[in-house]
Amino acid sequence: MSAVESRLVGPVRVVGVGLLGTSIALGLRARGVDVILSDASPTNVSIAIDYGAGRRAGDADEPQLIVVCVPPDVTASVIVRELSAYPRAVVTDVASVKKPVLDAVAAAGGDLSRYVGSHPLAGREKGGPMSGRADLFVGRPWVVAGHEGISYQAAAAVDDLILDLGATLVEMTAEEHDTSVALISHAPQVISTLMARRLIDAPAAAVGLAGGGVRDVTRIAASDPALWVQILGANAAPTASVLRALRDDLDEVIGALESSGASDTAWRRTVAEALAAGNAGVERLPGKHGQDRRYAQLVVMVDDAPGELARLFAEVGEEGVNLEDLRLEHSPGAQIGLAELSVLPETVDKLTAALAARGWRIAG
């Protein structure tokens, strides 16, 4: 099968073939782009080559674009090195913090007319070249953090990269990016981690009751500590600002709960307003197709057996109901799963009755 035509001319040099680097390389190779792979680990390069992500570097290479995909604490130095080694190439990086990297490249004398930072908001739980996927970025936001030192013409190669990989291009300044990810990524990582920390000394009986609530809150707590120390250190001030505001909210709720035994019932209003504000915040999160639309949920019990989940999906479709979202959870100590189906509110009663009539057990 012939490759889909690429906007990039190539070659493209990918420095760092972990999850993101290998995924970028695989996506470009699927479009027929000549991809050059580089990594401090020769083993990682060999694995990525075996997976079809590209080829080894050669002395005559003249890349059009260089994508730096290395840990945050060495990103700036690698960018400066690549700018110097390939004076005709445009360089970008995928680090999750942008302003400190831009400042460090400028301080080191890097050619800012050929560098622009970027950040794909995509990933997986597992890292390394074996986890790479050509479709990792499809439909995901990818920020380009432009600055005054680079022309639109030079930055166009980075735009082409993003569009070739099926991502959605988002333009921001480096400062806007770092403030945004502090709120939507970095502070949530700290909050999730600290909540998971409470589970270390929790009684086994309490942990055995764990359901969707605690699992949702702690899901990202399994992230790599070494990587997150680097990320949080690079974006410390914006993240600390979000956490301070959260601390104030927590202090207010804690104070209300501590006064709940008094005759004064004002604490109820404080807690209720905090919960209602949480509802309002959740409603701002874009849902399917970017719409701020709320869905209704029903929970269906699914036997832990091959084909049962597929049968459920098929029968939902046969009823003419579109599945907007899905969450799966296993019931502790039982050979069943709980499938929480999100559908349009006007269809939930019809679907509940139809699935029950087909023999499905509705748990909620």
UniProtKB/TrEMBL annotation:
Signal peptide: none
UniProt entry tagged with the keyword rRNA-binding: no
UniProt cross-references to Pfam families, sorted A to Z: PDH_C, PDH_N
Organism superkingdom: Bacteria
SUPFAM superfamilies the UniProt entry points to: 6-phosphogluconate dehydrogenase C-terminal domain-like, ACT-like, NAD(P)-binding Rossmann-fold domains
Single GO molecular function: NAD+ binding
UniProt GO BP: tyrosine biosynthetic process
Pathways involved: Amino-acid biosynthesis
Family: Belongs to the prephenate/arogenate dehydrogenase family.
The name this protein goes by in its record: Prephenate dehydrogenase
Gene source species: Herbiconiux oxytropis
